[in-house]
Amino acid sequence: MVVASLAFGSRVVSWPDVVAGVLHPDPENIAQAAVHSRIPRTVLGLLVGAALGLAGAVMQGLTRNPLADPGILGVNAGASLFVVLGIAWLGLSSLEEYIWLAFAGAALAALLVYTIGSMGREGATPLKLALAGAATTAALGSMVSMVLLTRTDVLDTFRFWQVGSLGRADFAQIGEVVPFLLVGAVLAVASARGLDALALGDDLAVGLGQRTGLVRALGATAAVLLAGSATAIAGPIAFVGLVMPHLARTFTGPSHRWLLPYSAAFGAALLVGADVVGRIVTRPQDLEVGIMTALLGAPVFIAIIRRQKVREL
C-alpha cells in the first residue's frame, strides 16, 4: 500500500522514480517531485489508519459491543462541534488553526460520555456507555446542524474537514499529533490483559484480580488520544475503527495481545489503500478518503457479519 501510495495519483510514477523520489529527489524531475510530495500524505494515512484501527479494537473491548467504533464515545461529534464553533465564532479557516480545537472537543465529549455512563450504582457498564455515547453524539450533532443552518458561510470551510481527507498533510501538522498518538498506543497495549479479562464479564474480571474501573479508564484514555488525534488532523473517517478489529479477529482470535497490533496494521493498510483508490477512480481529481472508506468498508463489514454472525464480544 505504501508503494502504491507513492506511485499512483494524477501522475503514475515508475519504480525507479519512486525510489529516487524517496531517497534523493531531483527537483527538476516532475515524477520524482510528485513522489516526494506524496510522502507526508502516505505517512499521515499510515498513522491515522493505525490509530483508528487500534482505537476501534480498544473501544469494542471496553464495551463488549461489536458495533463500537470511535463514534461511540462521541469523538467525531465533539471534534465536529468545536471545529464548527471555531470557524463561526473565532473566524478560523485553516487546519493549523483548528486542529487543537478538534482535539479538545473530541476529548471533552468522550469525558462527558464516560461521566454520564459512570453514574448510578453499577458504574460504567458497557450498555450505559453505549447509550450515553449515542445520546451525546445525537445531541452534539444537532448542535452542529444548528450552527451550520444559521451560518451557511461556515459550511464552505467546515465541509472540507468534515468529509475526512489526507490531501493537506504536512510534516509540521503530523509532528503536532504524533506525541498523542504514541501515548495512546502505549496505553492501549498496556490495557490488553485487562481487556481480555473484561471480555469474561466484570465479576470474573474482578475475581481474576483486575481493577475494572482502572482498566476502563486506561482504555478510554487510549481510545480518546488515538481517535481524537486522528480525527483532529484528518477529519472524522468512518468504518476503519469498526471493520478492522473484526477482520483482525479472523487471524488472531480474541486475545488483545495480538488483536491490537493487527488492528493497527490493517487500519493503516485500509486507509492508505482507500486513499490510493480515491486518487485513481476520479483522476486527475481526488475522491476524499473519508468517502472511500465508507464505500469500501461497508461491504466488507456486511460480509464479515454474515459469515461470522457477530452478535457480541
TrEMBL record:
Compartment(s) of residence: Cell membrane
One annotated GO molecular function: transmembrane transporter activity
Predominant place of localization: membrane
GO biological process: siderophore-iron import into cell
Topology with respect to the bilayer: Multi-pass membrane protein
Gene3D superfamilies per UniProt: ABC transporter involved in vitamin B12 uptake, BtuC
Stretches that traverse the bilayer: 38-59, 71-92, 98-117, 129-151, 213-239, 259-277, 289-306
One Pfam family cited in the UniProt record for this chain: FecCD
Keywords of the record: Cell membrane, Membrane, Transmembrane, Transmembrane helix, Transport
Similarity field: Belongs to the binding-protein-dependent transport system permease family. FecCD subfamily.
Protein name (record): Iron ABC transporter permease
